[in-house]
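Worked Example 4.2. Read the sequence first, then its structure tokens.
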Amino acid sequence: MNKNIVIAIDGYSSCGKSTIAKALAKRLHFIYIDSGAMYRAVTLYFLRNSIDLSNHDAVVTALNNVHLNFHSRDYKSHITLNDEDVSEEIRQMPVSELVSDVSTIKEVRVEMVRQQQRMGKSKNIIMDGRDIGTVVFPEADMKLFMTADPKVRAERRFKELMIKGEDVTMEEVFDNLAHRDYLDTTREESPLVRADDAIILDNTTIDQAQQLDFALVRILPLLTAV
């Protein structure tokens, strides 16, 4: 390759963005950067340190102490918060319930974009999130926008939480996703929108293998063109 390739995957919560991004990264030998995990890690830091989200100075000070990185182990991407692996803890409900509120804060988004762009320099990367193709990497070589029926998304997320032993109801999960969708799409700072040049991948009725094939058919020509 003569240049690094950037693939941006955006979309709604629990649409399998990270699943397909990880599969693509493994198949293509790219670096996978989970932007959603970054916002969750910031949220976890705020929770641990009882940061008042309405206190601008407290938020800015806290962000100065948040240092995120990714590393691979057992073919999986792990996120560290100040050198602590928090990959599991950030998926728990307390973080899920607050992450959209945290992600609406301008200072948080600016700092996350700064850290994401730092990670993405001079590497072949795949990044998933809410604003990757519109804000972080608007010139990405390939953009996918993932969506699915809300009920299907809630069922998938509920099953994941049950496997992890979380004490939640289906109604709580559905309400949480609906709330996150509302906040993600209506926030002033970098709302969730589909980039004009993004390809829609609706996975309501297709499995993971079919999603991977859908993406590879569109990405592989890029690798031979550079």
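Now turn to a second chain, presented in exactly the same format:
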Amino acid sequence: MSVNSALRHLAPDITHRLELRAGPTPRDIRHGLFQALGLPGEPPARPIEFDILLKETLAEEFRVLVCDEAQWMKKTGFEFWRHLWDDKRTNIAVIFAGGDGCYKVLRREPMLASRIFIWQEFTRMSKDEVRATIPAFHPVWADVDTALIDAIDKQAAHGSFRNWANITTHVLAGMKKLNLKQVDEDLVRWVYSKIGGM
């Protein structure tokens, strides 16, 4: 979510996200790029021709390529990314995003790790960050008592913005269903019954 939000702000027109299965092979990455870049026609049948097409396309203009769930990538997948990035003609930034274990997986590949410009870890929000961020995140939280926000964070959100987004969606649905105008403890208990927060 943090990566997507930052890229929507910094590079909205040049970002391409790949939809890849777990443990993608170079073939999967080629086809993912073909689809993400919106290339016309059918993908080339032979890897050499496919790589030439991708390199020519990736040399046309600067692009940001997002590879999510990078912790599932295998050595051959990383080698293929390195192969594309190392080509003198390509003009790309590759973002490897992932959850638990992503850093360790990437560090295990020294040829790749040595080419990574910046490592960015997104950690859970502190209590003070939650108090500052959540009321600004959505108007539904703007007038909610700080003690209730603290309780929700401790019991269900745990400093995770993704959890807060999920809780907010359920809060809005609950307000509509129960015809409520503001967030209260009864509504929060109703939300917990939907998400298993307690």
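Notes for the reader: The two ends are 24 Å apart (CA to CA). The mean pLDDT is 87.
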